[in-house]
Specification:
- With 280 residues, this protein is mainly α.
- 66% of the residues lie in helices and 0% in strands.
- It contains 17 helices and no strands.
- α10 (154-167) crosses α11 (171-178) and α13 crosses α14.
- The longest helix is centred in the middle third of the chain and has 21 residues, at 107-127.
- It starts with 6 loop residues before the first helix and ends with a helix.
């Protein structure tokens, strides 16, 4: 790579990456709808045997002790609820679709971190009366630009890791030094290219710098969620620095730390369940 990346160069490389499965785009696009007909969701999932197996597996895990095993998607959706099923579909598709192969990248650590931030973001959204599912999914996608770097620029990714160690700095500073852009900007370009909702684009772009994100609620939520995940020591990425905390983001959200603290047990349980569901 010669010189810093431009937005146009990122777009060119994004077009070379695997597209999101159609079912994921449909489900993410449907998040703006308050009502998603059960039959439509069943039809979308039924088109992919891997998704069917994942949803049924989660439903049977949740109903341990029941006399009969759950064998239909309709039963699974009734038990798990729309939000949980759509989260499962998104996580399954992302984990399957993006599998970078480089010795310097630890996919287990990456996805554990993504799960942790997603769970924390969902809890924070509930406390500030924001859309909990949208926040969860924005948290899950917040580092998607990181995957782009690993897949499209594996040598530069190794240089980024070396820069972090040599200069004792965080990943954003290292990415900008090596590539000229960071994974937040790259991820937002990817989300825009895939026609994802604006809230995802803004949250991905601004989660490391929410103070510049025009008080965008989901940038603030994902930013604080990432700090919370590090504080709880869940989904921590080895050799990574804790991002700088924006007190302004917390002030804009206006939640109560004691109230959030009362949810720590649920956060850790939900995080462990996600890791188990996906073999991480």
């Amino acid at each position: 790579m010669n010189g810093p990346l431009t937005r146009e160069a990122v777009l060119e490389r994004v077009a070379e990456l695997p597209a999101l499965p159609a079912v994921v785009g449909e489900i993410l696009g449907a998040l703006d709808n308050e009502v998603e007909p059960t039959e439509r969701l069943v039809g979308r999932i039924n088109s992919d045997p891997v998704l069917v197996a994942r949803v049924l597996g989660a439903a049977n895990s949740a109903s341990q002790g029941a006399r009969q095993r759950i064998g239909s998607l309709l039963e699974a959706i009734t038990l798990l609820g729309f939000n949980r099923v759509r989260q499962l579909v998104l996580m399954t598709a992302l984990v399957r679709q993006f599998q970078p192969v480089t010795p310097a990248f630890d996919p287990t650590a990456f996805w554990r971190h993504s799960f942790a931030v997603a769970v924390c973001a969902g809890v924070l959204a509930r406390e500030v009366a924001a859309d909990e599912e949208l926040a969860f999914n924005a948290g899950l996608l917040h580092d998607i630009g990181h995957l782009f770097i690993v897949m499209a620029f594996p040598q530069e990714f190794e240089a980024i890791l070396a820069f972090m160690q040599e200069n004792d700095t965080d990943i954003v500073v290292a990415e900008r030094a090596v590539l000229g852009v960071d994974h937040g900007l790259i991820g937002s370009v990817m989300a825009e290219h895939w026609n994802l909702p604006d809230a995802f684009i803004e949250a991905i772009d601004g989660h490391h710098n929410p103070d510049a994100a025009d008080n965008e609620a989901f940038s603030n939520i994902v930013h604080v969620a990432e700090i919370l995940a590090y504080a709880l020591d869940i989904g921590t990425i080895p050799r990574s620095a804790v991002p700088a905390f924006s007190a302004l983001a917390r002030a804009h959200l206006g939640f109560s730390w004691p109230v959030v603290a009362s949810r720590f047990g649920a956060i850790e349980a939900n995080y462990r369940a996600a890791c188990i569901d996906f073999g991480f």
